[in-house]
């Protein structure tokens, strides 16, 4: 199977199938949101498991499944240099600016 | 005139019992996997499918109860009939076996049910057409699910292949009953309630042959086919299933929760 991610579990002793991250679209034109993960041997199995686990109560109109190994994630030790510099830059938030009086329905 | 009415009522009642009982009994067999599935995701999938079948059964038995007109409800039909009064196919009452047996049974039934429901959308009986319009969507997913597993198991390891081939061999003699028409089927077809059972065979063959080829499964020869479920002549397994399925409703008649 060409669509089976290699080494997705990252652990040679893990007897589970590879892990896939599941994203569902809750409504038309809404963004896909991460909702959890499933184990599956291949893409079709991942899609079916995602449907059965995360979309059986009408929560979704679309599903993405992505091999977990394909996700590039930030590391906890990056948090300081990645996120802290944003703390004191309130002018980066739209709330920092006053809305001109003439502007209606904004 | 009165006699004609009685006949068409009997046909509708009998036909709906068949539709409902197939799905009630198969749904119950599948529910036995709840908490025992090979992995969590598949456990949930099997329980979902079992619930789809129970929903279809409930709908069919409501139509049956209304056709009977004796004041019985769908629950009465499900929980207060005896084995000889059940009209399900023998294939659905066989014990769940191993996972390969469960998948093979599901696939062989799903490939039949999806084409039956597709045809029943055009039933002259509006309550059946309504049931079928909902059920055909569920059944399309069921056959996608079971066909995928057929290929995974059949084209998997030596162990999974052997188990699946054995399951298909054991089940084959129970498949003919799906397409053997009796006077009830003929009357239902004549009244436009249902398609002729034989018209489903060709479509079923096409699906089964395609999936068997992809799963490296050898199609067994058509030899002797078992029948009897449609007239209440069941295997020894149905009684045990009913005892478990019906005990709560019978111990606490009319209970609500």
Overview of this protein structure:
Chain A is of the alpha+beta class and 106 residues long. Helix content of chain A is 16%, strand content 19%. Chain A has a 3-stranded antiparallel β-sheet. The longest helix of chain A is centred in the middle third of the chain and has 12 residues, at 43-54. Chain B has one domain (2-251): Up-down Bundle (Ferritin), CATH 1.20.1260.10. Chain B is built from 10 helices and no strands. Chain B has helices at 2-31, 40-68, 74-79, 90-93, 99-120, 126-154, 158-172, 183-190, 197-215, 237-251. In chain B, helix 5 packs antiparallel against helix 6 and helix 5 crosses helix 7. Chain B is globular, with a radius of gyration of 18 Å. The termini of chain B are far apart. Classes of the chains: A alpha+beta (106), B mainly alpha (257).
Short key terms for the protein model shown above:
heterodimer, A: 106 residues, alpha+beta, three-stranded antiparallel sheet, B: 257 residues, mainly alpha, Ferritin, globular
Just give the CATH class of chain A.
Alpha Beta
- Percent strand of chain A equals 15-25%
- The CATH architecture of chain A is Roll
As a percent range, the share of helical residues of chain B equals: 55-70%
* Main structural class of chain B: mainly alpha
What is the total domain count of chain B?
1
Q: In CATH, what is the class of chain B?
A: Mainly Alpha
At the fold tier of CATH, the topology name of chain B is Ferritin
Radius of gyration of chain B: 18 Å
Write down the overall mean pLDDT of chain A: 84
The tally of domains of chain A stands at 1
The biggest beta sheet of chain B is recorded as: none
CATH-assigned homologous superfamily of chain A: Phenylacetic acid degradation B
Tell me the span between the first and last alpha carbons of chain A: 52 Å
* Helix-residue proportion of chain A: 10-25%
């Amino acid at each position: 199977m060409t669509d089976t991610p290699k080494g997705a579990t990252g652990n040679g002793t893990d007897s589970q199938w590879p892990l896939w991250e599941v994203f569902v679209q809750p409504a038309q034109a809404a963004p896909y949101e991460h909702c959890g993960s499933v184990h599956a041997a291949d893409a079709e199995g991942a899609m079916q498991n995602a449907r059965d686990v995360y979309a059986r109560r009408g929560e979704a109109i679309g599903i993405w499944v992505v091999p977990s190994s394909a996700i590039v994630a930030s590391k906890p030790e990056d948090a300081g240099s990645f996120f802290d510099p944003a703390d004191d830059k309130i002018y980066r938030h739209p709330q920092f600016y006053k809305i001109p009086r003439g502007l209606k329905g904004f | 005139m009165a006699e004609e009415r009685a006949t068409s009522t009997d046909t509708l009642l009998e036909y709906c019992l068949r539709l409902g009982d197939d799905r009630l009994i198969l749904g119950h067999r599948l529910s036995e996997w709840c908490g025992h599935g090979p992995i969590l995701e598949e456990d949930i999938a099997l329980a979902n499918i079992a619930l789809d079948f129970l929903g279809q059964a409930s709908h069919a038995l409501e139509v049956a109860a209304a056709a009977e007109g004796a004041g019985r409800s769908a629950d009465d039909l499900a929980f207060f009939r005896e084995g000889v009064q059940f009209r399900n196919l023998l294939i659905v009452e066989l014990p769940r076996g191993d996972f390969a047996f469960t998948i093979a049974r599901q696939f062989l039934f799903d490939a039949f049910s999806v084409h039956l429901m597709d045809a029943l959308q055009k039933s002259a009986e509006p309550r059946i057409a309504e049931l079928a319009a909902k059920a055909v969507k569920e059944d399309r997913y069921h056959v996608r699910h079971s066909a995928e597993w057929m290929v995974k198991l059949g084209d998997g390891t030596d162990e999974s292949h052997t188990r699946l081939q054995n399951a298909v061999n054991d089940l084959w003699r129970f498949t003919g009953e799906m397409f053997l028409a009796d006077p009830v089927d003929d009357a239902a077809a004549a009244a436009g309630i249902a398609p002729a059972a034989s018209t489903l065979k060709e479509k079923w063959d096409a699906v089964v042959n395609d999936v068997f080829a992809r799963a490296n499964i050898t199609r067994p020869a058509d030899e002797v086919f078992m029948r009897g479920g449609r007239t209440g002549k069941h295997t020894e397994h149905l009684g045990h299933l009913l005892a478990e399925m019906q005990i709560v409703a019978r111990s606490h008649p009319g209970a609500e929760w």
